[in-house]
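Methods — Computational structure assignment.
A single polypeptide chain was analysed. Its primary sequence is given first, followed by the predicted tertiary structure written as structure tokens.
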Amino acid sequence: MARHARYDRPTLLNKAITLFWDRGYHGSSMKQIEQALDLRPGSIYAAFGSKDGLFAEALAAYAEQGRGELMSYLEHRDSVVEGLQAYLRALAGSRTSDKPARACMIIKTLLESSNTHPQLADQAETILADIRQALVEALEQAKGAGELIQSTDCDRLARLIQTQIVGLRSMAERGLTPRELAELADDIASLLDSYRAAH
């Protein structure tokens, strides 16, 4: 009778995400990976091929979770702009949960891997481009629905929002209080009000 694995891939990836987000690629030794995933080296290599393979898959899963959260906020509100604002405000709250901040692992990977692991840096660049495109599409939808003034450059506004998200996550790393972080997120969300069409 075949032995059944005592783990599943999503669970392993979530454990890897937590470790890599906290320590980064270079700061995570194979021994720490073994302990975090509760697997022997042979099982890790059999499942993911290498440390690079595990990191790349964890980063992709991390990005997909973040995209899912953004889409959830957009799909459960009548107004795209209000959905985006709620998402931005919620980012400040994620610091107090057991979930890592979404943008942080991507930016950390880009900064850490640019000179050492170009494939991982390229993956991070692609993820950031995909996030920006998702924001562009959401803003275009809002503009088409008459929520935004017609002169709005959605690509430019998406870059601004993404930059603000990265900044918010970076400020969270500096140890701001929950109140300070919430106020910052509220200020960022309020930027969208200046683009709203008058009704």
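Note: Residues 95-103 have pLDDT under 50 and may be disordered.
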